[in-house]
């Protein structure tokens, strides 16, 4: 009986989708516990690419139950499009269960996201504009609509009241909008949603654990985007950290076994906000080009930089990571030297602690320099056959974090993966 959790240790896009898909055969259930369609999780198999925003990345394995948990915020229009985009490869109606407690993203939540961002001007967060923050605002403000409500008689009335409230807020912002198409499309998607399994997923999940079946919780975003511990205010509005899996699924902390923490062999960030190891030189450009670093949800270019151990150690601590997973190791191939930040210099003082108000700090990272490798690693499947310099890099990270690296990903495809421990 165990819940394993897999989550990002940086600013998202670490390769969670690919690794969840790889690990899925070990689990009866794969469950999303937070975030919403701001996520974009990419899977590549059979020479095809799939991008999932709401549906868990276990959906392509027929024998797996996939759960959208209560902690997620859910846009029925995105869901409809996503189901269509994978219909030739997945049976979503029979293999997906959605929590009746999951909060609904309304079209007006998306408009409010855009209005909020416009009002922030230069200090905008760089939100994906999927309505995430306004929906979580309504959840904690106790005004939200939940998926279970679509089956209740007074749903229309509740919806009408909430939309009226949102219209007043949009007027306050002087934000121009047109709901004539957005609302009918959304209502249509709500009708389609009624055909899916909607239930108390906390009972389903805990009953499966009791039966001895294993569950994998799939995180979205990354620890540096967590509402509590991320680079506030440049964060998302949910708990992306391991504790979020407990509240976002209704599974108690004593059921947690492994916590898989995923990191890219370097670092990327999409959207605004602090990024101490960001590169503005040719190395940064090379990482972006080679790594195809463009957002899976918005297509925006991702900012690139070296691996940051201040961030990685902080994230490993906050999440209780038991196993590290390094992705995109292949992108570092052909760099003569690789840099890794081990500490920050702030106000002429050295520190290995991540400041709570990182946004107000002038940070100079201090780097270790590690020799790179030139060999093509994309076809290697045995850790022992990797170039010694790459093994040195992996073992250096293990030593610096006091945590084992159990998987190394060497390409976007399902098969491009190496087990270490
Ligand atoms: P997620 O949000 O954490 O699931 O990550 P994304 O899917 O947004 O971004 C990761 C990108 O890197 C996707 O395009 C993946 O197909 C790709 N990817 C994942 N792992 C690897 C890897 O080891 N090597 C390479 N070259 N690409 C990878
Ligand atoms: P996955 O699950 C990378 C970023 C946005 C923005 C900030 C707030 O694919 O790793 P929001 O839409 O939540 O208001 O945006 O968070 N962001 C992500 N960056 N990967 C993601 O998800 C992200 N989800 C949100 O770019 O800076
Ligand atoms: Mg992504």
Description:
The protein is of the alpha/beta class and 421 residues long. The mean pLDDT is 97. Helices cover 31% and strands 22% of the residues. It has a ten-stranded mixed beta sheet, sandwiched between helices. Strands 14, 16, 17 and 18 form a four-stranded mixed beta sheet that branches. Strands 3-4 form a two-stranded antiparallel sheet. It is built from twelve helices and 20 strands. The longest helix has 18 residues, at 155-172. The two termini are 22 Å apart. A hairpin with a 2-residue loop joins β3 (41-45) and β4. The chain has three domains: 3-100 and 200-259, Adenylosuccinate Synthetase, Chain A, domain 1 (3-Layer(aba) Sandwich); 103-193, Adenylosuccinate Synthetase, subunit A, domain 2; 264-419, Adenylosuccinate Synthetase, Chain A, domain 3. The protein has helices at residues 16-23, 76-86, 92-95, 107-120, 132-140, 155-172, 179-193, 201-210, 243-249, 282-290, 309-319, 388-401, and strands at residues 2-8, 29-32, 41-45, 48-52, 65-68, 73-74, 96-99, 103-104, 197-199, 214-218, 256-264, 267-269, 303-305, 307-308, 323-327, 337-346, 349-351, 364-371, 404-409, 417-419. Bound molecules: guanosine-5'-diphosphate, 6-O-phosphoryl inosine monophosphate and magnesium ion.
């Amino acid at each position: 009986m165990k819940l394993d959790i897999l989550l990002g240790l940086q600013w998202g896009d670490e390769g969670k989708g690919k690794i969840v898909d790889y690990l899925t055969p070990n689990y009866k259930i794969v469950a999303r516990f937070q975030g919403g369609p701001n996520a974009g999780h990419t899977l590549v198999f059979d020479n095809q690419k799939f991008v999932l925003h709401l549906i868990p990345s276990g959906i392509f394995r027929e024998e797996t139950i996939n759960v959208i948990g209560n902690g997620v915020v859910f846009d029925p229009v995105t869901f409809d499009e996503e189901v269509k985009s994978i219909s030739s490869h997945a049976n979503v109606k029979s293999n997906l269960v959605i929590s009746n407690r999951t909060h609904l993203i309304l079209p007006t939540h998306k408009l409010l996201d855009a209005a909020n961002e416009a009002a922030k001007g230069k200090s905008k967060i760089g939100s994906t504009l999927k309505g995430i923050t306004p929906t979580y605002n309504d959840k904690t403000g106790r005004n939200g609509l939940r998926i279970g409500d679509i089956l209740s008689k007074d749903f229309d009335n509740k919806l009408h009241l909430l939309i009226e409230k949102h219209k007043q807020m949009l007027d306050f912002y002087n934000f121009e909008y047109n709901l004539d198409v957005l609302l009918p499309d959304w209502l249509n998607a709500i009708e389609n949603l009624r055909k899916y399994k909607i239930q108390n997923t906390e009972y389903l999940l805990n009953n499966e654990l009791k039966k001895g079946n294993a569950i994998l919780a799939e995180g979205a975003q990354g620890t540096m985007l967590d509402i509590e511990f991320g680079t506030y205010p440049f964060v998302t509005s949910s708990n992306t950290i391991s504790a979020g899996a407990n509240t976002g699924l209704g599974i108690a902390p004593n059921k947690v076994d492994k916590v898989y923490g995923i990191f890219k062999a370097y670092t990327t960030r999409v959207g605004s906000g602090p990024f101490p190891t960001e590169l503005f030189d040719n190395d940064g450009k090379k990482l972006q080009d080679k790594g195809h670093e463009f957002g899976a949800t918005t297509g925006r270019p991702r900012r690139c930089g070296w691996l940051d151990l201040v961030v990685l150690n902080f994230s490993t601590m906050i999440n209780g990571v038991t196993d590290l997973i390094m992705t995109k190791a292949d992108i570092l191939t052909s760099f003569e030297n690789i840099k890794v930040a081990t500490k920050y210099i702030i106000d002429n003082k050295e520190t290995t602690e991540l400041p709570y108000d990182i946004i107000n700090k002038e940070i100079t990272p201090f780097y270790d320099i590690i020799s790179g490798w030139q060999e093509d690693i994309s076809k290697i499947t045995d850790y022992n056959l990797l170039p010694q310099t790459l093994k040195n890099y992996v073992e250096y990270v293990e030593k610096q974090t006091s945590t084992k690296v159990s998987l190394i990903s060497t390409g976007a495809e399902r098969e491009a993966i190496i087990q270490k421990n």
